[in-house]
Amino acid sequence: MTELYTASGSKVHAHKADIFCRDETRVDWHSKALWALREKRDRAAGSLPEWEQLRLLGSQLKLHTLSHLAQYLEQFEQQCLSNGIKVHWASDAQQHNEIVHGILAKHKVKKLVKSKSMLTEECHMNPYLERHGIEVVDTDLGERIIQLANMPPSHIVVPAIHMKKEEVGELFHQQLGTKAGESDPLYLTRAARAHLREKFLTADAAMTGVNMAIADQGAIVVCTNEGNADMGANLPKLQLHSMGIDKVVPDMDSVGVLLRTLARNATGQPITTYSSFYRGPQEGGEMHVIIVDNGRTEMMKDKILAESLKCIRCGGCLNTCPVYRRSGGYSYNYTIPGPIGIAVGAKHDDTNSIPWACTLCGSCTYVCPTMVPLDKIIAHHRRLKAEAKRLPYGKGGYMPLVGRFMANETLMNTSMSAARLALRVLPGSLLKPFSGAWGKYRELPVAPESSFASWYNKNRSR
Amino acid sequence: MKIALFIPCLVNQMMPEVAIATLTLLEKLGHQVIFPKGQTCCGQPMTNSGCFDEAKNTTLKLLNAFKGVDCDAIVCPAASCLVAAKENFHEFDGSQEAQEVISKLYELTEFLHDIAPIKAFARPVAAKISMQMSCHGIRMLNLATPTEQMGKQRFNKVEAVLGNIAGLEIVYPARIDECCGFGGTFAVDEGAVSAKMGKDKAQAHAATGAKYVVGFDPSCLLHLDGMIRRQKLPIETRHIAQIINDAL
């Protein structure tokens, strides 16, 4: 869209964030829009006296399922098969895309309508299918906006949150022929609806993501606000659903717990407009479920990282994250941004910088409806990067020096004494060029005459 | 009680007034206060960067300063350093002796609320203060219920301790417990975002019309002080120890 979002050059988080921060009015707008979601979440969560109990239950049921994963996945497969659903297993993104393409090619599908799925983003499925001559139409309004703008999602629940309505108006004017200069949300939504209706009616197949897969039912749950998953799944005869192995839950009671927290934590709604349960193909149709690993089993080997698989993708951690709100979804060098994006994406991050896009404030961990210990996971990623000698921002070079400096009392006392003197006697104009990122944005500290230890020796030591 | 002071390096070197106020107020409350020698850094700058090997020496040096010290409690006027010290002592030394040190560690507010509450204040402090509810104190030391957490059982130890000071008006900034953006090395690694967070927080405090931003975490206060003076906002930072000391 603008240079702001497609800035080339370094992919390092701090660099991307620095570019995002140059337009302060936009940062304020972005931060406020997302904070409004956090406030709505607080009101919705606060309206349930049992909220904290639901979080605990959500966490426990996900941990239970993850620790009996093979059992529940096999049960899910069996139940699906007996419901007439075809089940496929994909060990990675490539295999997932090949399976999907295989199914579509067999049915000579030219046009696929798709509702929200972060997994297909993770697998980069759209470009894969497009290379094979299949048109993929994202049907969630936000997803459609960014697809028309040729951008990836900047948020996992509100993917076009970074775009202002005027920008959407301009995009629709160019791509859908709406009136120039028109940015009324109702007008634009109606235009998108008419445009998508035509796509639904002419599609050869439909695809959705999966919010939950119910092991003992052989059914999947898809939550949308626009009914687009249902429009897709009910029109063409062929329906596909892709899910990560972490999406399985034991039974309907588990679904009951997670459905109560999912929408409340995401947008502050009591529940999404549509919570659709699919448990078999249409008459004369075919229903396929593709179960994808793509690194999840590997993640389960690390006890701390494994907890990130409890995530139900509500996006609540993004909305509360003070860094995400001020650096934008495109600064993370991974498909999923924000705290959960760092948790599941750090190992793919070739800049090795995203685990440091965090102050370890812990807000995300307290917001999370399944109690994923995000701050601990992020800190753990830092340790893993350090152990692999992949530290960003020159830390690999200076940290050993800091370690030695901090452990050496004499060295610390003499140099800090010199630093205090410099801060006291030298003019700011002389100090600023040497004060780095601290002095670029803040005034340097007012230095005291002496350390507390010296004061104590003079005033208290006997 | 016999109290050993744990004064983190930042406070020792750059904010001695916070340590002096802590020492003085504890003495005024009738405690016997000592300052064990050999304290350096808790290792947080290194461990928060994932560099545990680099943190080991300084952490153990700090731990050794407290091992075998005859005291009832070890009190620290910096929540974040206290949390890091607890975690890092545990990480690098599993001995019984280390565990004894860890079990005596208290952040100042925590100590004045849970262990030795102040019976009465001697003097009023006529000021409106805006509370800086720093992250680690709230979300890791349970000094107050964080805003993300729901339910009726809410507490705020900071307000409970300061609330009895006559003349003191306690207010809170918008987005009460949103991080100020300091985050240790984050402040320099991610300068732009850190500064924007700090600017927003400083402005939120100033917008309350309070005279002081008061907090329990000196590092956040140092960062906010730099932001406040850069933007020439009509507010100053104070540590809770300074406010309490003025009231005793």
UniProtKB/TrEMBL annotation, chain A:
Q: Which GO terms describe its molecular function?
A: 4 iron, 4 sulfur cluster binding; metal ion binding
One family name in Pfam for this protein: LUD_dom
Which keywords does this chain's UniProt record carry?
4Fe-4S, Electron transport, Iron, Iron-sulfur, Metal-binding, Repeat, Transport
Q: Boundaries of each 4Fe-4S ferredoxin-type domain copy?
A: 302-323
Biological process, per Gene Ontology: lactate metabolic process
The record ties this protein, via Gene3D superfamilies, to: Alpha-helical ferredoxin, NagB/RpiA/CoA transferase-like
InterPro entries per UniProt: 4Fe4S_Fe-S-bd (IPR017896), 4Fe4S_Fe_S_CS (IPR017900), FTHF_cligase-like_sf (IPR024185), Helical_ferredxn (IPR009051), LUD_dom (IPR003741), LutB/LldF (IPR004452), NagB/RpiA_transferase-like (IPR037171)
Q: What's the protein here called?
A: 4Fe-4S ferredoxin
Q: What is the lineage of its organism?
A: Bacteria, Pseudomonadati, Pseudomonadota, Gammaproteobacteria, Alteromonadales
